Batch of 2 targets.
Target 1
Amino acid sequence: MSHLSNIVKKEVKELLTPGSIASVLLMVILFACLGGLIGDEVSKSTVMPTVGVVGSDDQTIELDGDEWNAYDFLINFYINSGDKRITPENVTYFVIKMDKGDIMAQMEATGASVVLVLADDFKSSIESSIAKHGTSEESVYKKGSVSQYYIYKPSGMIGGTVSSSITEYLITYMNASLSRFIIGEGEAAYIEFVEHPIKGSKTYTFINGQPYEDVTPSDISEALTGQTMFIPIIIMIIIMMVGSIVISSMGSEKENKTLETLLTLPIRRTTIVTGKIIAAAIVGLVFGTAYMLGMACYIGSITFMAVGGQGIDIGNYGLALGLTDYLLLMVSMFLAIACALGICMILGAFAKNYKSAQTMTMPLSILAIIPMFITMFSGWYGSSDLIKCVLFAIPFSHPMMATEALMNGDVTLVLGGLVYMAVFAVVSIMITVKLYSSDILITGLGQNKYVEKLRGQGKRKR
Amino acid sequence: MTDALVLSEVRKTYGQREAVHGVSLTVKEGEIFGLIGHNGAGKTTLLRMISTILKITSGSIQVYGHDVAKESDSVRHLISYLPEDAGAYKDMTGRRYLTFIADFFATGKERDELVERGIALADLGDKIDYRIDTYSKGMMRRLLIARAIMTRPKLAILDEVTSGLDVINAYEIREVIRSIAKSGVTVIMSSHNMFEVDMLCDRVGMIDQGKLIEVGTPDELKRKYGKETLEEVFVTAVKGA
């Protein structure tokens, strides 16, 4: 067995313990369950809410022998809503007549999410306004008012936002229905014309210089939400994971006092450094893949919420990545991991023990989190020049923004990033080898001549 | 007799502080050389420089004619270093640990022979297949000394090899050191236990504040200072009384 494979085998065995595997599996299961829970919450929030109606019997609008009733409208609307739970037989469980008494008690008793209360003058206002048809003075037309009652329950961002927006949507349709009733069904087409005399005939969006029909930048952004969120998070997790593995490994070597023995074995320092880096990369990729699977379930449900389940096929707009693009992405990811390992080996050299090693992962975490947030919120192309400089300088940014760049056909940015990361990785590994050949690994910074000089100056100043 | 270890005006400084101050010394092949000195005297720093893990600020160290600074890879093939309070990889078994180390020195049958020798030296019985984190301090020390010796180094560097061990374990480890020296291995060891050094070492070097203040056989030193024990010699030499 070669010295390198002996070191790699030892490191991998040390890192892939039953405990570490169990904790990663647990995390994956947690992510998957969380995704399932969010998915359930989203689907609950996007179905028709149970609605109560107050005053519909007293406030029936009468016109030329016909009647319009808010409760009847809602019954019809719910039956035809497409919500598979609702049938003509059970619709009255979803649309409930209520009285003017204790609305909150009735809501709690029936489980209604919202109650629509027609004002006492709802009928009279609308009917008197209809009677005054032909008057040009705006103030004579009085609209019927409908109040909405909710009970606030802490249900997170999804539950609250979606249920109130569905009620707004109900009121809009109620308005349209009443308009048709007032003007007469025969005039419905004319009303539609009067309300929307301008037709947005076609939408064109230029994507990478090519015009595409019937798609807006917003549609594209929504379709890419999953990728723009997913990739930076995964890369951040992998970087933090491999970083933590390497630094902790160094901390353990020092704490268990095995480092000195390792350094006196007949092997080159570069072999020790390379062995530790390869082992951390293998374990990091194994753990990263596991996290990726868990995150895929989690992000999948969020994406569903964001696009309402109606995605567009980005491949139709020339935005799908080809084989070369995926290869570039993989190289970018590999180099980012190499950079992370280089940084961590440097940081790990200063770790005194396992505990101090844990705190040393902080700079790496910050370097991984900054580009993740920037790429998620503004991306490379939406950032200022200063932010672009920061993004480019942090090696982990490059795989995070590579997808966006490749979709935009900006291969120069990706290749530039690859060259930068390659140089960064080589330099950091060279520094690591230098550190492994120096006294710092054994004595720490406390006995470094430069640190002692600084301390000396500090003392003199005091 | 061949010179196993030659130190010439060896210095080690950390910033302004001088940890080892111009130490010169020769250890012959097959000799057991003891380094004694109080805490922080520079013993461990000296042993670490011989072991290639600390850089020499000035002077030179030669192990069997190989310069430690310039030929550290060659030197590491000749030496075996056992640091004070050294540990082993706790998730490995004793056997796996010995195999891991032996893999750096030999392959195939030769490797297996080294491991078997290590197992015999450790003398842990069936505990050799137990995880190291279940070992007592004495068992751990036996395993580590077996690790250090099984590879048949030409120079064994042992730092406080019996510190913290009970009488039986310390005795057995001293017997192992004596037997390997008889087989031609040169040993340089540090210890606070003057009795141990007196019994075990052919020659002794006394270090104080990074300087080698005395070198000689235990009997020579006792005669020179007119004392009965090495402990008295050391106290007198250090305090100048």
Target 2
Amino acid sequence: MSNIGSYEEKVKNFSWSISENELEYENGKIINIGWYCSDRICQIGKAEKVALYYEGFDGIEKKFSFNDVRLAGNTIGTFLRNLGIKNEDRVCLYMDRIPELYFSFLGVLKIGAIAQPMFAAFGEESLFIRLENAQTRAIITQRKHLPKVKKVIDRLPSLEFIIIVDNIKSKSLGDKEVSFNLDEASPVEKMEIFPTSAESPSVLHYTSGTTGQPKGVKHVHYSLISQYLTSKWVLDLRENDIYWCTADPGWVTGTSYGIIGPWSLGITQCVLDAGFSAQTWYRFIDKYKITMWYSAPTAIRSLMKAGEEAIKGFNLSSLRHLASVGEPLNSEAVIWSEKYLGKPFHDTFWQTETGSIMITNFPDMKIKPGSMGKPFPGITAANLDPLTYEPILEPGKIGLLAFKPGWPSMMRTYWNNDEKFREKFINGWYLTGDRTRIDDEGYFWFIGRDDDVINTGGHLVSPFEVESALLEHPAVGESAVVAKPDEIKMEVVKAFITLKPGFKPSSDLELEIMNFIRKKLSSLAMPQEIEYMDKLPKTRSGKIMRRLLHAKEWGESIGDVSSLEND
Amino acid sequence: MDEKNLQEIKDLVLNYVIKEYIDEEEEKISYDTPLISSGYIDSFSMVSLLVFLENKFKIKIPPSKATPDAFDSVNKIVFLINQYL
């Protein structure tokens, strides 16, 4: 029997107080995620239980108990506090998936500051935009990422400290640079945990939209209530599980379910700080006897591509439950995993803004391969009519996926952008930006985005951001960016560009532009293909008609072109 | 391909990888250093490396052969290139 038991019964009798009671949280009292994920677990008798098995790409292995995690969080938190970092200051975590990343996250929260996790593959401009918007006071990073920070530091007057976790003594420190080595620091046994309340800000994750710059999604400590219970009921985490969440904490899955969920439940988790390779992943599961595995469709499709040969020689029988997130999970992937891994992947749907799983195929519930599943108890989900914004009651009709606000982990606002936040709500519903249909058994089915945002390998990329960056390349006259279908990543970034006079199309120039975007924004945003155009399709008012280019890539009808500019 | 040419290609690919994908100057990258499985180059960036190889050596590598495993070290990349030269 799974943790959730009867889904129908839980839906009928649901209250978030179930989670509050299990966590012994009382309304109006202190709630601090950093404390809940370490100190509390030690207090309930699991201090010596393994919290983290870490393996680096270079083969280095480390093991940490919950008491080690508690001490590391205390030590880093105290170090930050001694620097003068205060509650609600933003502290950026810009590291690979090394143990210090996980411990810093807790340390930042323990002092009441706001953790701002940043994907380490982000280039300098992506970094700059997010640090400037958040007015970040400190960044914790590694030497290998320091060159990117140095390129933008002069434009970031609010950034006072660059904390390097692996500095070597022979390397002198530059302006604003501070060295902090966890292995050499004296462990701090006791520290005063900042008395954060339910609505105190905790985590700031940036997400991309169709237009404008990335938006900082502000979460609060009360999000724990959702993240704890969804980890228990959806991921079905149990006392003796060995859990592996493959997401990077630079993204919301990596914090909600790569740190908060498992550790608030006192679950042992594994981290592999290495790039994708089917053999490496299978070996990792076999070696650590992973029981619960939370991954992404892109990774699953890559494993499918590697074939069953890649599985041979590995024992994957420890796997008990599998789940997936980031993009729609195609039915073939569900069927494949059941056949070759012995268990089906359960799709989970949620967003940076929702903070926790909203719709899912629950354990012990009949999976409909390709479907998103059903709403989590306590979540009111609907498919809205795009004209009236009223729920569509007729099964099978396509509408806009929306949720009734009020669940604990819902974003509280976009950082410095309340206006954009308010735009997400219409008629009392939070609009996800996705289109879905609901079948006659209440299962939700993903249809597509309701905007131009590109979902590549589970990561959202703003076409606007890439188009703007392209225009900064000296050869590019105009640009339009759309999603292109991809067998593994679902969608990839494709750019259409015109060149300025004096430049000629060539594959060398294509490569130069690709690398320009990769370094400036990130590898995710780098166009995987660039097509040169003599001119881009525009409306008579001069607006680029992105949808025509999108339709071309997807083999769809181009629809109404009456507003298309004539030659 | 003779040894001298092979060595030149290895050095050319190695220098390009270091210049384009490795942020830290002191990082020691050799012909056998894992590139993809280590996370130095991700599956998105691999596309730009593929374009570089195809442009530089005037070859076309089929998508089915441009796998993370085939790109996982300079030596493996050179082995792949050699099949299309």
